[in-house]
Amino acid sequence: MAKISKRMQAAREVAPREAVTLDAAVAAVLAQPAAKFDESVDVAVNLGVDPKHAEQMVRGSVSLPNGTGKTVRVAVFAKGPKADEAKEAGADIVGADDLVEKVQGGFMDFDRIVATPDMMAQVGKLGRVLGPRGLMPNPKLGTVTMDVGKAVSAVKAGQIEVRTDKTGIVHASVGRRSFDATKLEENVRFLVDELNRMKPAASKGRYMQRMVISSTMGAAVTVDVASL
C-alpha cells in the first residue's frame, strides 16, 4: 500500500466525508493545505448515460464565466487572410501544410486546435496523433470554423471542451486555487447548467448522479447534486 503524505492526510481531515452543498465543498477544497504551485481545481461528474450508445454521448464546448486561469496554447490550421485573423486573435501557432508536416514530425506544443473547413482534409491526416489526445478539431465544438478569430478568442478566454469518458464521467477544470470561492462556484454552476442543457433525449432516470471537486494535490469532496 502506498504511503499517504502528511499533506494528503491533513487534506483528508479537512474534507467532509459526506456529500455537502457546493459552497461547503468549495470551502473545504480551499481550506486544504496548498501545494507550492497554483493548483487546478477540477470536477468529475457522473452522468446517467451509456456512452457506448452514440445518442447518449455528451460532448460540447463550455465558456466558463470566469475562465480556467490556465494559459492555453492554441494552434490554428488556416491559410491567407484567415491565418492573419488567427494571429490577430492571439493564436500561438498558425500554419497550413507546413504545420501539418511539423505535427507529423512530432511537434505537439499546443493545448487546443482550431481549423478552417478547407484545411480539414490535411488535418485529417493527423487523426492518429491528435485523436487519442482529444485534440482533433470538430465543427460541433466550434473548432472547425471560418470564424477563426472568434474561436481563438473563446478558447483563450477559458472555453473548455467537455465529453463523457467510457464510464459516463465528465472531467473538467473549473479554475485555480488562487480563485476566490465565488468564482469557482459560479464556474461550477455554469458547467452544471450547460451539462443539463446537453442532456441526451435517450438518457433515462436520474441524469446528474454524482459530483466530486478537488484540487490537483488535494482530497476530493463530494457535492450534493440535489442542492444544485
Characterization of the model:
This protein is of the alpha/beta class and 228 residues long. It is 31% helix and 21% strand. The protein contains eight helices and nine strands. It has helices spanning 6-14, 22-31, 80-88, 97-104, 120-123, 127-130, 148-156, 181-197; strands at residues 40-47, 59-63, 74-77, 93-95, 112-115, 159-163, 169-176, 208-215, 221-223. The strands form three sheets. It has a four-stranded antiparallel beta sheet with strand order 7-1-8-9, with helices on one face. Strands 4-3-5 form a three-stranded parallel beta sheet, sandwiched between helices. A hairpin with a 5-residue loop joins β8 (208-215) and β9. α2 (22-31) packs across α8. It is globular, with a radius of gyration of 19 Å. The model has no long low-confidence stretch (mean pLDDT 91).
What's the gist of this structure?
31% of the residues lie in helices and 21% in strands. It has 228 residues and is of the alpha/beta class.
Give the SSE map:
Elements: H1 6-14, H2 22-31, E1 40-47, E2 59-63, E3 74-77, H3 80-88, E4 93-95, H4 97-104, E5 112-115, H5 120-123, H6 127-130, H7 148-156, E6 159-163, E7 169-176, H8 181-197, E8 208-215, E9 221-223
Parallel strand pairs: 3-4, 3-5
Antiparallel strand pairs: 1-7, 1-8, 2-6, 8-9
Helix pairs in contact: 2-8
